[in-house]
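Tokens as discussed.
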């Protein structure tokens, strides 16, 4: 009985120590230099369960370089021993007496610790700056919205420096598009009399809102070799950059308000028609319009519409091809617009001159690029335009006897004619009903959903997107053609879209609030957008097929 009670008592002690594990904490060193690192060792005994530690309290005074976790288990002379070690590598951000706050490990908390960090001498600090350092530069400190600015980041290091981490990737910016130019390059460079190894990264940044744009600082860890007091020692260092601030300017007032905003270093436009031999009426040829942009992406190039009389030409545009080149020192983009053309009349066909307005970011002036007009000789015969037949004037025969002698064929033909007319009427009625059902959406259906999207738009870009989606769904076309259809509907439609674009890229007077112009949706914008899309639907509903000529002339009395 006594032995059994002793066994139960021992089990209770074992369970209590397993459940209520003790936690200890210690530092690998109590005093370190400013650039050195220290290990914080936490041990949780009587457990083999690893925990996820919350180290956020350390980040105010330390860089957390890494955490290693290990567990041990022993069974010696009938006694169990188990523990879990956490080794946390810390690098101080400050000098002086730093306090390490308690850290929660499972149910227990470590005691607070103190670490003394000695400041480096000015000579040592300057020596380290000569061994490894960053260089950053921007192509310009002031940039227009949607224009290109080149950001270059270089890490230079001398012989004997060891890099412990890779360079960070592209800067993450909430109001800008960042493209990587080429690949990260490595080589050597000379600064003064010293030759350094260098790692270079280049990025093209396109701000999307006016105001201040901050490129955040980055840092890497390295190890340098120093000679102090006649002894060579190696110290871990953290090398970083400072924040880079850009000022993003809005669209200049001198840029034409009726033209899409296009900032670039250079723009070239070229048009041609691919013709093999003589082009005749009814033949198909390809018209190609290429816009090449240096210093911006191809998607910013506006679609170009050219007008030729429909009596002379039929046009069938294809989807544009957009390409971007990011392998050089800057971004270059292109937009190739291909259209199939079919001439309808012989003679000289003139494709008009094409012009693109753009803003030269090198000279800060308005510029234009022009493709000369094309003149093509067209052979063949003009395509006849079908006209509805006109009824000949009725004449009353003077000789009733002669008319009485004609055979009476109407009784035999009239039933067949009535049957054909009835079938044709039923077919036209069916097509009319089908068209009406296709144009009138069901309650709560796609039309209502699209209008709800326009009503719920919260920003200028969201409103333009909602309009584009609505027109695309109503007309069963892609988004690009849908926006073009909306703009071509009337001068009011075009003016409304131009107003949205102009206000979306306009700035505010307060630079620190950059980007508010992008959110400045007026209360009446959604209502006006709904009126315009409904007007567009009504205009399309009024378009009816040409009337068919009568099968028979029923005006003649039988």
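Sequence:
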């Amino acid at each position: 009985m006594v032995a059994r009670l002793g066994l139960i008592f021992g089990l209770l002690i074992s369970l209590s120590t397993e459940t209520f594990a003790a936690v200890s904490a210690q530092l690998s060193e109590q005093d370190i230099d400013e650039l050195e690192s220290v290990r914080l060792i936490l041990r949780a005994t009587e457990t083999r369960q690893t925990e996820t530690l919350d180290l956020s309290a350390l980040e105010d005074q330390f860089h957390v370089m890494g955490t290693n976790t290990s567990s041990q288990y022993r069974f010696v002379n009938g006694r169990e021993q188990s523990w879990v070690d956490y080794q946390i590598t810390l690098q101080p951000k400050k000098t002086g007496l730093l306090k390490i706050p308690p850290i929660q490990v499972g149910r227990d908390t470590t005691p607070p610790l103190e670490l003394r960090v000695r400041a480096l001498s000015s000579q040592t600090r300057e020596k380290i700056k000569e061994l490894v350092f960053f260089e950053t530069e921007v192509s310009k400190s002031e940039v227009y919205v949607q224009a290109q600015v080149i950001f270059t980041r270089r890490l230079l290091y001398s012989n004997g420096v060891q890099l412990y981490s890779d360079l960070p990737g592209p800067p993450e910016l909430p109001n800008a598009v960042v493209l990587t130019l080429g690949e990260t390059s490595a080589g050597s460079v000379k600064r003064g009399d010293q030759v350094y190894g260098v790692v270079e990264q280049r990025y093209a940044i396109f701000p999307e809102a006016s105001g201040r744009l901050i490129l955040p600082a980055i840092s890497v860890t390295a190890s340098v070799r120093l000679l102090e007091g006649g002894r060579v020692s190696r110290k871990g260092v953290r090398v970083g950059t400072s924040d880079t601030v850009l000022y993003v300017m809005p669209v200049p007032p001198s840029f034409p308000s009726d033209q899409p905003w296009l900032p670039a270093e250079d723009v070239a436009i070229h048009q041609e028609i691919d013709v093999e031999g003589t082009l005749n009426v009814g033949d198909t040829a390809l018209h190609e319009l290429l816009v090449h942009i240096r210093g911006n992406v191809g998607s910013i190039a506006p679609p170009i519409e050219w007008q030729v009389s429909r009596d002379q030409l039929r046009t069938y545009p294809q989807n544009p091809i957009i390409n971007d080149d990011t392998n050089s020192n800057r971004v270059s983009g292109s937009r190739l617009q291909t259209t199939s053309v079919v001439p309808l009349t012989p003679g000289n066909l003139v494709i008009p001159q094409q012009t693109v307005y753009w803003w030269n970011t090198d000279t800060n002036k308005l510029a234009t690029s022009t493709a000369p007009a094309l003149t093509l000789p067209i052979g063949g015969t003009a395509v006849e335009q079908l006209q509805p037949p006109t009824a000949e004037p009725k004449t009353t025969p003077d000789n009733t006897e002669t008319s009485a002698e004609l055979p009476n064929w109407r009784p035999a033909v009239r039933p067949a004619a009535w049957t054909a007319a009835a079938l044709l009427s039923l077919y036209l009625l069916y097509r009319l009903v089908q068209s009406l059902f296709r144009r009138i959406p069901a309650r709560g259906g796609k039309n209502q959903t699209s209008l709800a999207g326009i009503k719920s738009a919260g920003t200028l870009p969201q409103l333009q997107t909602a309009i584009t989606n609505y027109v695309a769904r109503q007309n069963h076309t892609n988004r690009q053609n849908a926006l073009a259809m909306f703009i071509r509907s009337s001068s009011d439609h075009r003016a409304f879209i131009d107003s949205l674009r102009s206000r979306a890229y306009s700035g505010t007077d307060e630079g620190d609030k950059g980007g508010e112009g992008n959110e400045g949706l007026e209360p009446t914008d959604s209502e006006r957008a709904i009126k315009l899309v409904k007007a567009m639907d009504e205009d399309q509903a009024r378009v009816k097929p040409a009337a068919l000529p009568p099968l028979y002339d029923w005006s003649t009395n039988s």
